[in-house]
Amino acid sequence: MDHIDHVVKLVGIDHFACGSDGSLRGWPTDPADEKALMGYYSPERFKQASYRFRYPLATEGMNDPKKWLNVTAGMIRRGYREEDILKFLGGNWLHVFRDVMG
Question: What is the spatial distance between Cα 95 and Cα 102, in angstroms, rounded to a whole number?
Fold first, then answer.
């Protein structure tokens, strides 16, 4: 939440949105799925140390899509207006897509 507040202060809510690389189904919990991901994200694939695989694949506390509800609740607690929350959760992306793609 502090990161959200910080970036909003830097650039404004109209120029900031969440971006999740996670699956809408969540991160793998099956060891077979984890093994497949480890093969994809192996150090051989990415030589730079900063790209090395780590598991779990998400920020601690945000490793499940349902936890985005906590971000919404946190923004409400911090006094963000509903229209600003909607901008952060996808409205700003839609704005960019409309401007770029028509």
Answer: 10
Of 6, 37, 36, 9, nearest in space to 21 by CA: 37
pLDDT of residue 20: 63
DSSP string, the chain: -HHHHHHHHHH-GGG------S-TT-S--SHHHHHHHHHHT-TTT--SGGG---SSSS-TT-SSGGGHHHHHHHHHHTT--HHHHHIIIIIHHHHHHHHHH-
Q: Domain of 52?
A: 23-57
User: Are the CB atoms for 58 and 27 separated by under 8 Å?
Assistant: yes
Same domain, 14 and 64: yes
Domain count of the fold of the chain: 2
Q: List, for residues 48-67, the tens digit of each pLDDT value.
A: 555 555 555 566 677 677 77
